[in-house]
Amino acid sequence: AAAGILCYVGAYVFITYDDYDHFFEDVYTLIPAVIIIAVGTLLFIIGLIGCCATIRESRCGLATFVIILLLVFITEVVVVVLGYIYRAKVEDEVDHSIRKVYNGYNGTNPDAASRAIDYVQRQLRCCGIHNYSDWENTVWFKQTKNNSVPLSCCKAALSNCTGSLTRPMDLYSEGCEALVVKKLQEIMMYVIWAALAFAAIQLLGMLCACIVLCRRSRDPAYELLIAGGTYA
């Protein structure tokens, strides 16, 4: 179950980042998500080893289980540290990229950058970088010469909005940069909290395995129940 949830969290980060990849050029930020998916896959195998070793009460199996869990625990600590590092870099990365993306907007659906901007403005209910007036400085606005912004800036409840700057009350007033940064930082926090939660679960797993190992070493007369043995 833990392995499945970790893989889900990692996949969720990849899918969500795909919607905002035009605003974020540093692919290394996805490293924590990659590690989370790898750990989730490994954790499924580790779980099988742990179950078999516990049922058979194999000292060798349990010792291997504890060592692997310890390595995975260290990996998850690394994920938490990387998560915090890249979370702090999100704002600078978005600030560096977003102006270039908006200047590349041409209003056509096949264009990836244009689709990305329209998607973000509709999903996050924002317009422009800091507000709708930022569109006045874009190449697209100067070429169209109709004193309007993209229809994706229109409030969802309005059906007759044309994007005209003469009716600013029809447009989203909040800029997209702050909301994109907030969204990406929230996603990174999901990775951090998932890694912390499962690191705690793995500590519990290591503790339980150590207890079984200590019981075996202190009671040499103890025999495997599955072999028909009894307590001394």
UniProtKB/TrEMBL annotation:
Keywords: Glycoprotein, Membrane, Transmembrane, Transmembrane helix. GO terms for cellular component: plasma membrane. Its main location: membrane. It holds the Pfam family Tetraspanin. InterPro entries: Tetraspanin/Peripherin, Tetraspanin_animals, Tetraspanin_CS, Tetraspanin_EC2_sf. The chain crosses the membrane at residues 30-55, 62-86, 187-214. It is found in: Membrane. It is a multi-pass membrane protein. Belongs to the tetraspanin (TM4SF) family. Regulates the proliferation and migration of oligodendrocytes, a process essential for normal myelination and repair. Interacts with claudin-11/CLDN11 and integrins. This is Tetraspanin. It comes from Regulus satrapa. The lineage of its organism: Eukaryota, Metazoa, Chordata, Craniata, Vertebrata.
